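User: Sorry, folds how?
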Amino acid sequence: METITTDKMIQDYAAYTPEHYKVWEILFDRQMALLQDRAASVFMQGIEAIHFSANAIPKFDEFNIRLETLTGWNAVVVAGLIGNKEFFELLKNRKFPASTWLRSMEQLDYLEEPDMFHDVFAHLPLLTNKTYCAYLYGLSKIALSYIENPIAVELISRIYWYTVEFGLIRDNGLLRIYGSGILSSQGESIYCLKSGIPSKRIDYNVDKILDTPYIKDKFQAQYFVIDTCLDLFESLPDIEMGIIKRLEHPELFVEG
């Protein structure tokens, strides 16, 4: 994974073209219409609190003021994927790395590397929630404690993947989406909540997640369901103990 230096990187707002504005507008309107009865209330409330809309590409300088006021977090500009250590060090400092580049019209439905729509639209509204932020902070501390161990990094990646990126939540008795990887995907936003799909929806279980390699190139085979964001925060000790157990007993580690 390439490491990108984040120091002094800024959003070059003047560089956005009419196509960029149109791409943002189309993606925002499409996803918001789709997510009205699919997204978790914590996400929908966050969209409103952070003042995102279809009319303008979000400005880091503006939404960071709102984030810092609400939870003390902010987003920092990165050019692309960054190393694991750099990523979790940013989270430990209550900073979320986000790209400023936007996909083209030809890439509306799929691209391999996350762009600004994924990083900003799908991730940042959750950062208006203090409990969710406390979970990210706690997870980063655990990750940094074991960052030199590749097995531990893989285990942390599974937790992050099945919660932050592809998690589901019971919201007032209804199954809803809070995972950012789903929230930014038209196809998976529909697929993950369908009845009769072959994927499984499993109650949030740290040990089960630690033993489940994740899928990158197709829809998930299973989704883990929390009741509230507090479930994530309260599971932090179990996450660390689960990692320690598998490091002390490598035979317990399930290969990807």
